[in-house]
Design a protein that fits this description.
There is one protein chain. The chain is globular, with a radius of gyration of 31 Å. Helix 1 (18-32) packs parallel to helix 2, helix 13 packs antiparallel against helix 14 and helix 14 (300-321) packs across helix 16 (347-355). By secondary structure, it is α/β, with parallel strands linked by helices. It is built from 27 helices and 18 strands. Strands 3-4-2-5-10-1-11 form a seven-stranded parallel β-sheet, with helices on both faces.
């Protein structure tokens, strides 16, 4: 195993912190033992390099490839910068990979791209074959001139083959091909790969380079990935089993030859749920039934029996589930309806069984699957041969695959059957969707972590480690946690004894007034910008309006809202001094976004931001309670309490991100104070890690201004005279 001193060459632009040295040594030791690693490190303390450096060193010694992944765009950019810094000191073959949709030059769907690639490759192969046959014909002609016996007959055979190839080429040219990919195959691409590995190129740079030369950058990038040292990618390349299999094939690696590094790893749980959940819309069922009307196949009737019964059941189920006046309130977003039952199968399944009149669901679903696959092959051939301008998706196959999964898995632990409705923007009609919602993410992640050589999961908010081990299916990982190494006298973390913002009390005028007073004092005594995080966008708007109407708040007020582009909002906020930004803790600004130095001096989390209570959240709690029945209140702890505290800690980490930085972090709700010990599971102070709990200082709302004044004045942070209490 290498010593930490050998890692110094990877830090060309800064000296590693002592904690980084320690983390690198521990990670290196764990990798040598092929153990997974859980690394928690405070924001701004160099977790990426702490994980990446020993992973790359280990991979180089053992002939492995490192794949580092995130679901946060800003972190992707940071990975590129870190990789570039390393390449300036050490030779490193690195690629940054994005999906086809973001790199396609002709804007076609995935299946169309697959077909175009196959037909284009076949065209080039036939052109090569034609060239070889022409050479043979020319050589035989010379031999005929020399009077060689049998040369004429041989040449006739070759010219017959040439005619057949010419005919095939004519058909292929009449079909669909991709000119960009064609140029990849027939041109010299050595220059591209030399350029690619001169530096760490972004997908945008690759797209521009290839587009200027009429090449397919996506396919060239795939070719260049084989046996590289480092790949930067998005979560879905690893969390989706089908994509992961292809991805590793492009790398030219078996899973056991890959080391994965997950950044913002506290997000894997929700991302894995999204990848595992399956849906089927009413529209897809209607299109599948139309498809079957045109199918001249004996399997069409059995398929129609299944699909029409499921469509009728779906419509009847959401009609019954919609309460009085609820249909009129359905908008553009999916609106969940309750169909699950505690003592029997869900309402949709029961309605399906009641409506179905075929000769056996299992047999006829299987026939529908067979027919769907046959139709899909027909669509493939039609597009390949130029008989269709687009590559059609087989709706029958999609519907049959979903119904098969619904019947087989709908009653399993961790699978929650759901029905949702939304309003069609064009017709204004309400239509429905069936969904199998995956509650326990380890069904997706456990296989991944078992297959690869080792994984490093890093975040500022991974603890408690035992929970992340359970929900993701990790076996005996090495665990390490490193707090802020920055001077303690340059930060204050205050728990303000403000009213507890339970949902039932948020509308109370006295509660609102008390909280607004606290926030006004916090902004008035901060020498710079203030970030305010609330349990929801609605609460952010409420206190934005209250602060706007106060004479003692003179700062520039900004309100973040759903759908607002993250970077533009950040730029507006940091574009001047003395600004206040009100946003939701469940929005996009609470993590993965840096507010360094003067960008923000005080951050406040107002209330305990429990996730919105919904059927999905209740299903997750129930699944965890059943899966971990031996653990007290596992559902509440795993699904609600711990994710909430992680989000809170992420928000607090938006400030104090460098050794010379300073600031105040506020928790505005008495549930964060020592008094929360008497509040049962709703008191959350005990959920923070011990060293963070030790830094929490309880403060009376009326005394907050003095605590902040003393802190900032001691640092000589006020640009002029300090404000008067």
């Amino acid at each position: 195993m290498s010593t930490t001193g050998e890692y110094e060459r990877f830090f060309p632009y800064e000296e590693p912190y002592p904690n980084q040295r320690s983390a690198m040594a521990e990670i290196a030791e764990a990798l040598d033992d092929e153990r997974d690693v859980l690394l928690e490190g405070a924001p701004g303390t160099g977790k990426t390099l702490s994980a990446l450096v020993p992973a790359l060193e280990y991979a180089r010694r053992t002939d492995k490839t490192v794949v580092i992944t995130t679901n946060v765009h800003q972190q992707m950019r940071q990975f590129v910068e870190d990789a570039r810094a390393i390449t300036r000191e050490e030779p490193l073959r690195a690629v940054v990979f994005k999906g086809k949709s973001s790199m396609c030059h002709i804007d076609v769907e995935y299946q169309e791209c697959q077909t175009l690639r196959d037909t284009t490759r076949t065209l080039v192969e036939k052109e090569t074959e034609r060239a070889e046959l022409n050479q043979q014909a020319e050589a035989l002609l010379d031999r005929i001139r020399e009077g060689e016996d049998g040369a004429g007959e041989a040449r006739n055979t070759v010219t017959d083959e040439l005619d057949a190839v010419e005919s095939e080429l004519e058909e292929l040219r009449d079909g669909n091909v991709c000119e960009h990919y064609y140029n990849n195959l027939v041109g010299n691409t050595d220059e591209f790969f030399e350029w690619l590995f001169e530096d760490v190129r972004t997908p945008e740079e690759i797209y521009e380079y290839a587009d200027q030369r009429q090449l397919c950058g996506y396919e060239l990038l795939k070719e260049g990935m084989e046996a590289v040292d480092l790949v930067v990618c998005n979560y879905h390349h690893l969390l989706d089993p089908a994509i992961r299999e292809q991805f590793f094939r492009w790398l030219g690696r078996d899973p056991e030859d890959v080391v994965t590094v997950f950044d913002e790893a506290h997000n894997i749980e929700s991302a894995a749920r999204d990848h595992a959940s399956r849906t089927l819309t009413e529209n897809t069922l209607e299109e599948a039934l139309s498809e079957l009307e045109d199918a001249d196949d004996s399997r069409a009737q059995p398929a129609e029996n299944v699909l029409s019964a499921f469509l009728g059941a779906l419509r009847a189920t959401y009609d019954d589930a919609l309460g009085f006046g609820e249909r009129e309130q359905v908008g553009d977003d999916w609106h969940d309806l309750t169909i699950a039952n505690s003592d029997r199968r869900d309402d949709l399944t029961l309605a399906f069984l009641d409506r179905y009149e075929g000769r056996g669901i299992d047999a006829e679903v299987d026939l529908a699957l067979q027919l769907g696959r046959a139709l899909d092959r027909e669509y493939e051939e039609a597009y390949k041969n130029g008989q269709a301008t687009t590559r059609s998706e087989c709706q029958t196959l999609q519907a049959a695959e979903f119904i098969a999964a619904w019947m087989a898995d709908g009653g399993k632990l961790g699978q929650h059957p759901m029905c949702s409705v939304r309003r069609d923007a064009g017709t204004e009609e309400v239509y429905g969707r069936a969904e199998l919602y995956t509650c326990i993410p380890r069904e997706v992640t456990e296989t991944l972590f078992e297959e690869v050589n080792a994984s490093i999961l890093m975040s500022a908010t991974l603890r408690p480690f035992d929970v992340i081990e359970d929900v993701l299916g990790l076996s005996d990982p090495a665990t390490m946690a490193y707090g802020l190494e920055y001077p303690e006298d340059r930060r204050r973390t205050l728990a303000v004894e403000a009213p507890a913002l339970f949902s039932s009390e948020r509308s109370d005028p006295n509660t609102q007034s008390a909280v607004a007073d606290v926030l006004a004092d916090a902004t008035r005594f901060t020498p710079g910008n203030v970030l305010l995080f609330f349990p929801s966008y609605a609460e952010a708007e409420r206190y934005h309006d209250r602060l706007r109407n106060r004479a003692d708040v003179t700062s520039r007020l900004l309100l973040d809202e759903p759908g607002v582009e993250t970077e533009s909002m950040r730029q507006s906020f940091v574009g001047g001094d003395d600004a206040i930004l009100c946003t939701s803790l469940w929005g996009t600004l609470a993590e993965g976004v840096s507010f360094d130095g003067d960008d923000a001096r005080t951050v406040a989390v107002v209330g305990v931001p429990y996730p919105h209570l919904s059927e999905r959240m209740e299903a997750i709690q129930d699944a965890y309670d059943r899966a971990y029945a031996d653990r007290r209140e596992a559902g509440w702890r795993y699904a609600v309490e711990i994710p909430t505290i992680r989000k809170t800690r992420q928000a607090l980490g938006r400030v104090i991100r460098a050794p010379d930085d300073y600031g105040v972090r506020l928790l505005v709700d008495k549930r964060y104070t020592r008094a929360s010990a008497d509040m049962g599971k709703y008191g959350v102070r005990g959920s923070f890690p011990p060293e963070e709990r030790a830094e929490l200082v309880d403060v009376d709302p009326e005394k907050l201004k003095f605590a902040m004044l003393n802190f900032y004045a001691d640092l000589d942070a006020y640009p002029g005279e300090p404000p008067r209490p």
